[in-house]
Amino acid sequence: MSSNMSLKEAERKAFRSTFQDGLWDVYLGFVFLLFGIGPLIQVSADNDWILSLGYFVPLVLLFVAAKKYITTPRIGRAKFSQARKRKVKKVRLLLLFSVVLGTIIYLMGATGDGFAGSFAKLPIVLLVFTVNVLLIFWLGAYFLDFSRLYVYGALLGLSFPAGFFLMERGIVADETRPFILTSSIMIVVGIVLFVRFLRENPPIDENSLSEGGA
User: Fold this and answer.
1) Considering the domain boundaries, does residue 93 fall inside one?
2) How would DSSP label each residue in 181-194?
């Protein structure tokens, strides 16, 4: 029994190490940053999909490349149990659903004048967005043992309602502005973690490992 528990704990620690490099923080921060800067850089509502594609494709490619060429050479690649893999698949589906729903909400509201159309006057949209973000991030935090997602979920989930409240009082131009602040917090945290990760984890010398095991 104790052996099984120690193996599960070791697997859990190895799994949690996936998020110690801060790259997920940076990636998710830039994903939600588009909500804040989208209306500022919008040229035409008809070309929103081009803007989104040109933003997300390089972001995903950079994230995958950083994981492969920076993180993996420093901590290696661990193999996890089928139960853990099934959890990861479920979380990936949840994240995909969240991104799709968030994109739909963004495209619905991103008219020529940002989110200031009839869309912004529907409180149900605020509720749907907030619940969606909280649910996805908190479930992800639970299944992935990624505790920072609890905080990020709260920050992002409340950004839209806070922006709506501020816009109604003429403090901000549109309700997406708070996303600039909340997503920037995520990016800064991720960068700090990434720098610390690089300092504490030099690349693994495969030659020395093979010599030591000989």
Assistant:
1) yes
2) HHHHHHHHHHHHHH
pLDDT tens readout for residues 120-146: 455 677 777 788 888 888 988 888 888
Residue-wise pLDDT for 191-206, tens only, equals 999 999 999 988 876 5
User: Is 211 among the domain residues?
Assistant: no
User: Any idea which residue has 């070309």 for tokens?
Assistant: 47
The two three-digit tokens of residue 186, written as one number:
């995520």
The answer to whether position 213 is within a domain reads no
Q: CA–CA separation, 84 vs 165, rounded Å?
A: 41
The total number of structural domains that make up the chain: 1
- pLDDT (average), residues 45-60: 79
Angstrom distance (rounded) from CA 104 to CA 99: 9
**How many Å apart are CA 59 and CA 65, to the nearest integer?**
10
The conformational region for residue 6 under phi > 0 = left, psi -120 to 50 = alpha, else beta, is alpha
Instruction: Identify whether 207 is part of a domain.
Output: no
φ, ψ at 52 (rounded to 5°): -65, -45
The residue range of the domain holding 35 is 16-74+81-198
